[in-house]
Design brief:
Elements (H helix, E strand, L loop, with lengths): L2 E5 L2 E3 L5 E8 L6 E8 L6 E8 L4 E3 L7 E6 L4 E6 L8 E9 L14 E2 L3 E5 L2
Protein backbone atom coordinates (compact mmCIF):
# COMPACT_ATOMS: atom_id res chain seq x y z
CA UNK A 1 0.00 0.00 0.00
CA UNK A 2 1.40 3.38 -1.01
CA UNK A 3 0.98 6.39 1.24
CA UNK A 4 1.62 9.98 0.21
CA UNK A 5 2.48 12.66 2.73
CA UNK A 6 2.18 16.27 1.63
CA UNK A 7 3.50 19.38 3.29
CA UNK A 8 4.36 22.99 2.56
CA UNK A 9 1.06 24.70 1.91
CA UNK A 10 0.05 27.96 3.51
CA UNK A 11 -0.77 31.61 3.03
CA UNK A 12 1.49 33.73 0.84
CA UNK A 13 1.25 37.18 -0.68
CA UNK A 14 1.01 37.66 -4.44
CA UNK A 15 4.45 37.42 -5.99
CA UNK A 16 5.67 35.18 -3.21
CA UNK A 17 6.93 31.60 -3.25
CA UNK A 18 6.10 28.29 -1.64
CA UNK A 19 7.57 24.83 -1.89
CA UNK A 20 5.35 21.79 -1.58
CA UNK A 21 6.72 18.37 -0.69
CA UNK A 22 5.29 14.94 -1.36
CA UNK A 23 6.89 11.87 0.18
CA UNK A 24 5.86 8.40 -0.96
CA UNK A 25 6.11 5.37 1.30
CA UNK A 26 5.28 1.74 0.65
CA UNK A 27 4.91 0.18 -2.78
CA UNK A 28 7.43 -1.90 -4.68
CA UNK A 29 7.38 -0.42 -8.15
CA UNK A 30 10.51 1.36 -9.35
CA UNK A 31 8.67 2.97 -12.26
CA UNK A 32 6.18 5.61 -11.25
CA UNK A 33 5.37 9.28 -11.38
CA UNK A 34 4.57 11.68 -8.58
CA UNK A 35 2.36 14.53 -9.62
CA UNK A 36 0.58 17.56 -8.26
CA UNK A 37 -2.98 18.40 -9.12
CA UNK A 38 -4.92 21.35 -7.78
CA UNK A 39 -8.54 22.18 -7.27
CA UNK A 40 -9.84 25.68 -6.73
CA UNK A 41 -13.28 26.34 -5.26
CA UNK A 42 -15.98 25.68 -7.84
CA UNK A 43 -13.52 24.37 -10.41
CA UNK A 44 -12.44 20.98 -11.65
CA UNK A 45 -9.19 19.45 -10.50
CA UNK A 46 -6.36 20.24 -12.89
CA UNK A 47 -2.92 18.85 -13.57
CA UNK A 48 -0.06 20.99 -12.30
CA UNK A 49 3.19 19.06 -12.75
CA UNK A 50 4.76 15.62 -12.50
CA UNK A 51 8.14 13.94 -12.20
CA UNK A 52 9.02 10.40 -13.12
CA UNK A 53 11.06 7.76 -11.41
CA UNK A 54 13.65 6.58 -12.27
CA UNK A 55 14.53 8.94 -15.13
CA UNK A 56 13.50 12.25 -13.54
CA UNK A 57 11.58 13.56 -16.54
CA UNK A 58 9.31 16.47 -15.67
CA UNK A 59 5.99 17.60 -17.10
CA UNK A 60 3.97 20.75 -16.52
CA UNK A 61 0.45 21.93 -17.02
CA UNK A 62 -0.24 24.53 -19.65
CA UNK A 63 1.00 28.00 -18.68
CA UNK A 64 2.61 26.84 -15.42
CA UNK A 65 6.06 26.05 -16.67
CA UNK A 66 8.34 28.95 -15.90
CA UNK A 67 6.77 29.71 -12.55
CA UNK A 68 6.55 26.17 -11.16
CA UNK A 69 9.41 23.69 -11.02
CA UNK A 70 9.38 20.01 -10.07
CA UNK A 71 12.38 18.35 -8.51
CA UNK A 72 13.07 15.29 -6.40
CA UNK A 73 15.24 13.78 -3.73
CA UNK A 74 15.67 10.18 -4.77
CA UNK A 75 16.82 8.73 -1.46
CA UNK A 76 13.81 10.19 0.33
CA UNK A 77 11.30 9.31 -2.41
CA UNK A 78 10.21 12.92 -2.21
CA UNK A 79 9.04 15.23 -4.95
CA UNK A 80 9.08 18.99 -4.58
CA UNK A 81 7.01 21.61 -6.30
CA UNK A 82 8.65 25.02 -6.17
CA UNK A 83 6.07 27.69 -6.89
CA UNK A 84 7.29 31.21 -7.64
CA UNK A 85 5.56 34.44 -8.61
CA UNK A 86 2.35 33.16 -7.09
CA UNK A 87 -0.91 34.75 -8.12
CA UNK A 88 -4.32 34.81 -6.45
CA UNK A 89 -5.57 32.41 -9.12
CA UNK A 90 -3.09 29.82 -7.86
CA UNK A 91 -5.19 29.54 -4.71
CA UNK A 92 -6.37 25.94 -4.44
CA UNK A 93 -6.03 22.68 -2.61
CA UNK A 94 -2.98 20.94 -4.00
CA UNK A 95 -3.01 17.15 -4.14
CA UNK A 96 -0.10 14.80 -4.57
CA UNK A 97 -0.76 11.66 -6.59
CA UNK A 98 1.17 8.59 -7.76
CA UNK A 99 0.92 6.78 -11.07
CA UNK A 100 2.54 3.38 -11.62
CA UNK A 101 4.33 2.57 -14.87
CA UNK A 102 3.62 5.99 -16.34
CA UNK A 103 3.72 6.89 -20.01
CA UNK A 104 4.17 10.40 -21.27
CA UNK A 105 0.89 10.58 -23.18
CA UNK A 106 -1.17 10.08 -20.04
CA UNK A 107 1.04 11.76 -17.46
CA UNK A 108 -1.57 14.47 -16.88
CA UNK A 109 -4.55 12.12 -16.85
CA UNK A 110 -6.18 12.09 -13.45
CA UNK A 111 -7.66 8.61 -13.94
CA UNK A 112 -4.19 7.09 -14.28
CA UNK A 113 -3.25 8.00 -10.73
CA UNK A 114 -4.07 5.30 -8.21
CA UNK A 115 -2.88 6.87 -4.96
CA UNK A 116 -3.71 10.33 -3.67
CA UNK A 117 -2.71 12.45 -0.74
CA UNK A 118 -5.20 14.35 1.39
CA UNK A 119 -4.28 17.72 -0.06
CA UNK A 120 -2.66 20.87 1.23
CA UNK A 121 -4.18 24.34 1.02
CA UNK A 122 -2.33 27.09 -0.82
CA UNK A 123 -3.80 30.57 -0.47
CA UNK A 124 -2.37 33.53 -2.34
CA UNK A 125 -3.74 36.74 -0.93
CA UNK A 126 -2.65 40.12 0.32
Amino acid sequence: QVQLMESGGGLVQPGGSLRLSCTASGGTSNSYALAWFRQAPGKEREFVAAIRWPNGATYYGDSLKGRFTMSREISKKTAYLQMNSLRPEDTAVYFCARQSNPISSTISAEYRYDYWGQGTQVTVSS
